[in-house]
Specification:
The protein has helices at 16-23, 41-48, 66-71, 95-112, 125-138, 152-165, 203-214, 216-224, 232-249, 269-276, 305-331; strands spanning 4-9, 29-35, 56-60, 76-79, 117-120, 147-149, 179-181, 188-190, 256-262, 282-290, 293-297. By secondary structure, it is of the alpha/beta class. It folds into two domains: 4-150, 3-Layer(aba) Sandwich (Rossmann fold); 151-332, L-2-Hydroxyisocaproate Dehydrogenase, Chain A, domain 2. Strands 3-2-1-4-5-6 form a six-stranded parallel sheet, sandwiched between helices. A three-stranded antiparallel sheet has the order 9-10-11. Helix 1 (16-23) links the parallel strand 1 and strand 2. Helix 1 runs parallel beside helix 9. The structure holds nicotinamide-adenine-dinucleotide and (2S)-2-hydroxybutanedioic acid (LMR). (2S)-2-hydroxybutanedioic acid binds at residues 84-85, 91, 123, 153, 217, 220-221, 229-230. One of its GO terms (molecular function) is L-malate dehydrogenase (NAD+) activity. NAD(+) binds at residues 10-16, 36, 98, 121-123, 234. Keywords: NAD, Oxidoreductase, Tricarboxylic acid cycle. Homodimer.
């Protein structure tokens, strides 16, 4: 098997550390570069470099052309860099700081790893993915098949919370529930009517469940009480994302995942606009993966009247977040 190089940007952080641990265990990976602006990343790299797996682990900061060395030759780059929320903040409150971080990292990826698959974790995902796309476009290296907003944590939460509601808390792995739209509050649209296996949840139980999936992030922010947001569940979700992508791109599988992608240049992307009745450029949907990354965007499928209502509530906020990210991406280059 050809072993590949992965890079984690923000590797010294709350998500970055456990995500680096899980990434170093992926059998497709021969090298993991851990990049962070904080020098503590060298300690994280030293620690993980003792694992007896296939991966060689190296740490980098900005010094000595660190970003260049971390990214050069990387086939996949995951980005959990930037500030997390504190109680009372929205994800959009992080935009001011995280948008610049994302623009700078996107510029580095364009320069040193232009063919890499990119997984954007940094919030607000609804806007940071457009920042990445606009930066990569301006640098002439944008490939819509390879840029993913990582919304896997919403999928993970949906499986877990549905299993709990139906009284089978140990059965979360058996439930697959699409979550479409974006990754922020009301823009997160769980499609419980398409749950596999199907579930019979309605009325107040359904609205409480949907609200919990939409605001699961807030639940963790509140419980951490100023110490940040979800890190371990995000690392778990990020690892699920990375494993699914690498198994398709390098392992010959054609996995289907949900991700926040740029629709206009992807096969099947236009059909989503007709299905949801709005011309949004970015949307979290099911995508079929292949050797090149996204092979095609899969239809949203039938929504219940309740879910159609959630979609209508989501679209204005999603649209505004996209406009903000695109505007920043275009103006700051
Ligand atoms: P954290 O503060 O613990 O870690 C962030 C790391 O990024 C720090 O080590 C910091 O030094 C580093 N960093 C800052 N600027 C950088 C730069 N320019 N280049 C490289 N590294 C840089 O935060 P965290 O809890 O790990 O969260 C990181 C981000 O992920 C936040 O924006 C958070 O909102 C987001 N997040 C997203 C999801 C999701 O579902 N997509 C889930 C949880 C958290
Ligand atoms: C989450 O969903 O847990 C993340 O987006 C972090 C947050 O700010 O809630």
């Amino acid at each position: 098997m050809t072993l590949i190089k992965a890079a984690i940007c923000g590797a010294g952080g709350g998500i970055g550390q456990p995500l680096s641990l899980l990434t170093a265990q992926n059998p497709h990976i021969g090298e993991v570069s851990l990049f962070d602006v904080a020098p503590s990343v060298f300690g994280v790299a030293a620690d993980l470099s003792h694992l007896d797996g296939t991966a060689v682990v190296k740490g980098y900061t900005k010094d000595n052309d660190g970003l260049k060395h971390a990214l050069s030759g990387a086939q996949i780059v995951i980005i959990p860099a930037g500030v997390p929320r504190k109680p009372g903040m929205t994800r959009d409150d992080l935009f001011k700081i995280n948008a610049s971080i994302c623009r700078d990292l996107a510029t580095g990826i364009a320069d040193y790893a232009p063919d890499a698959i990119i997984g954007v974790v940094s919030n607000p995902v609804n806007s940071t993915v457009p920042v990445f796309v606009e930066t990569l476009k301006a640098k002439g290296v944008f490939n819509p098949r390879k840029v993913f907003g990582v919304t896997t944590l919403d999928i993970v939460r949906a499986s877990k919370f549905v299993a709990e509601v139906v009284g089978k808390p140990n059965d979360a792995p058996q439930y697959t529930i699409p979550v479409i739209g974006g990754h922020s509050g009301k823009t997160i649209i769980p499609v419980i009517s398409q749950s596999k296996p199907s579930v019979d949840i309605s009325g107040e139980t359904l609205s409480t469940l949907v609200n919990r999936i939409q605001f699961g992030g807030d639940e963790v922010v509140k419980a951490k009480d100023g110490a940040g947001s979800a890190t371990l569940s995000m690392a778990y979700a990020g690892s699920k994302f990375l494993n699914a992508v690498l198994d398709s791109v390098y392992g010959g599988k054609s996995n289907v995942i949900q991700s926040y992608v740029y629709l206009p240049e992807l096969p099947g992307g236009d059909a989503i606009k007709s299905e949801i009745g709005k011309d949004v450029a970015y949307f979290s949907v099911s995508v079929q993966l292949g050797k090149q990354g996204v092979e095609k965007v899969l239809p949203v499928g039938p929504l219940s009247d309740y879910e159609k209502g959630l979609l209508q509530e989501a679209l204005p906020e999603l649209d505004a977040s996209i406009v903000k990210g695109v505007g920043f991406g275009k103006s700051s280059l």
